Amino acid sequence: MRITGISTHVVGTPWRNLTYVQVHTDEGLTGVGETRMLGRTDALIGYLKEAEVNHIAGSDPFAVEDLVRRMKYGDYGRAGEIVMSGIACVEMACWDIKGKALGVPVWQLLGGRADVSDNRVKAYANGWYTVERTPEAFHKAAQTVVERGYRALKLDPFGTGSFELDHAETVRSLSLVEAVRDAIGPEAELLLEMHGRFSPATAIRLARELEPFAPSWLEEPVPPENLKALAKVAEKTTLPIATGERIHDRIEFRELFESQAVDIIQPDLGHLGGIGEMRKLAATAETHYVLMAPHNVGGSVLTAASLQLAGCTPNFKILEHFNDFADAEIKKVVKNAPQVVDGYFTLSEAPGLGVELDTEAAAEFPQQQARFDLWAEDWHKRDGQAKR
């Protein structure tokens, strides 16, 4: 079997463009992969056009390791976010092809289920708080999440906070967290996102004030470039620290593990080179007693691929999910899209990734000039209209 070529399809919304890549073969099997770029969709598609000629066309889709290494190192220049995201789309599509050809789900090819007593994967909701930034509105929105069956949710309550957060904004942010905790009760998981906003001193102060609400993690408390700053925060709080969505190469996680500053890593399968790279990273994380909870702001193909990893990974904690609340209509572009029931995904038994791209439905959502600016007023509404 050989790859004959690829095709790309962009599904657009006001705040995100999702790029789907189909890999076609001379035996009629087609696999699909996906990533979500922030402001770099055209660059990704441009890279894939070159990579199709230089590396992809004519390759054996079963030889995933070989194809990944050629795409990553064959152009000599260091692979960054765009290249690793392109590799991820093609790589997961090859796993999809391999699973279909062999008649088994991808998780079966990666070692089988890590927990044979349970075929469920816990989900947490994101994108649900597209409301006015008041305790009343956040309380009502959070109630909607738990009424839908979710047992975990995440929010960034800090508005446009950057480095510091003044007293008024601190009080407002804490009131939102308090309202959400009250709405979901003491048993549901509350996950707090900082989006790399703060200085270590501010993050430490906020962590101390957030402890009464028992969050399961504090995510990206400081910008991701300085691991010593992250370690400073980790040393001064009892809250678990989560980070890693903006790291695009598993090798770059080495210093993070060595720093002992992280409890949960959050790599994005669509940016880290695909399923195989994530599997290797998960195994490394396990040796450091670190859990994995992938960043997942894509659509249903990326969710399905992340679930394949979840099924065979013993240190897998939970999977993010946007598509029940933000742009829920885009789920129709993928057939057999994973669904959350009573707070959990069910691990698919279908061959490959277990999903198919509906290209006609995808055409209903053309690429947009998607806008997502975390330092703009009302960014949390995710309508693409937020302005600084």
UniProtKB/TrEMBL annotation:
A Pfam family annotated for this UniProt entry: MR_MLE_N
Keywords, sorted A to Z: Lyase
Transmembrane stretches, start-end: none
Domain Mandelate racemase/muconate lactonizing enzyme C-terminal: 135-240
SMART domains cross-referenced by the UniProt entry: MR_MLE
CDD domains: MR_like
InterPro entries found in the cross-reference section: DgoD-like, Enolase-like_C_sf, Enolase-like_N, Enolase_C-like, Mandelate_racemase_C, Mandelate_racemase_N_dom
Claim: Transferase is one of the keywords in the record: no
Domain of life: Bacteria
Family annotation (PANTHER family): D-GALACTONATE DEHYDRATASE, D-GALACTONATE DEHYDRATASE-RELATED
Protein name from the UniProt record: Mandelate racemase/muconate lactonizing enzyme family protein
Organism: Streptomyces johnsoniae
